[in-house]
Automatic annotation (TrEMBL):
It comes from Mycetocola miduiensis. One of its GO terms (molecular function) is FMN binding. This is NADH-FMN oxidoreductase RutF, flavin reductase (DIM6/NTAB) family. InterPro entries: Flavin_Rdtase-like_dom (IPR002563), NADH-dep_flavin_reductase (IPR050268), Split_barrel_FMN-bd (IPR012349). Gene3D superfamilies: Electron Transport, Fmn-binding Protein, Chain A. GO terms for biological process: pyrimidine nucleobase catabolic process. Residues 15-159 form the Flavin reductase like domain. Keywords: Oxidoreductase. Signal peptide: none annotated. The lineage of its organism: Bacteria, Bacillati, Actinomycetota, Actinomycetes, Micrococcales. Pfam families: Flavin_Reduct.
Length: 164
């Protein structure tokens, strides 16, 4: 292998082994249809003003909504939300079928029973190759019931103690 060529298999394996917290981003598309996806890239950018970031591929089914909307909801999941994470990472047409969400005051889809949810305004979308970094200024939210962490590791949603 050429030392200048990246080893994509090693890159992919490295990030599969890198455990990350699980969040779900929700929004509405231009027709008002709810969209959402799981994100393991959620990070705090600043406390004052409160800013959060997440990354996503522009090929993702939710990208057209995120590219055109002004507002999103960010949900942080705990261990009891494992099934919710599976739903929100599954078939995009089935993500909002069922009673696991409700419409929030701002019209955004809010997932029920999560450890925390926040709403905010997208203030920046930075294009990086075929992906985007999205910056959100947080404007409100609620703290839900405490729970053990839910992490994404080796393509599974697990509690830290489940990793063997």
């Amino acid at each position: 292998m050429n030392s200048m060529q990246p080893d994509l298999d090693a890159f992919k394996a490295a990030f599969r082994r890198h455990a990350a917290g699980v969040a779900v981003i929700t929004a509405r598309d231009t027709a008002g249809v709810p969209v959402g996806f799981t994100a393991t890239s959620l990070a705090s950018l600043a406390a004052v003003p409160p800013l959060a970031t997440f990354n996503m591929a522009k090929s993702a089914s939710s990208w057209p909504a995120i590219a055109s909307t002004e507002r999103v909801a960010i949900h942080m999941l705990g261990a009891r939300n494992r099934r919710l994470a599976e739903i929100m990472s599954g078939d995009h047409a089935a993500r909002f079928i069922g009673d696991h969400w409700h419409e929030g005051e701002s019209g955004l889809p809010i997932l029920d029973g999560v450890t925390t949810w926040m709403t905010g305004r997208i203030i920046e979308r930075l294009s990086v190759h075929n992906s985007a970094v999205v910056v959100v200024q947080i404007e409100g939210g609620e703290i839900g019931p405490d729970d053990e962490p839910l992490i994404y590791h080796e393509r599974r949603y697990v509690r830290p103690g489940d990793i063997a």
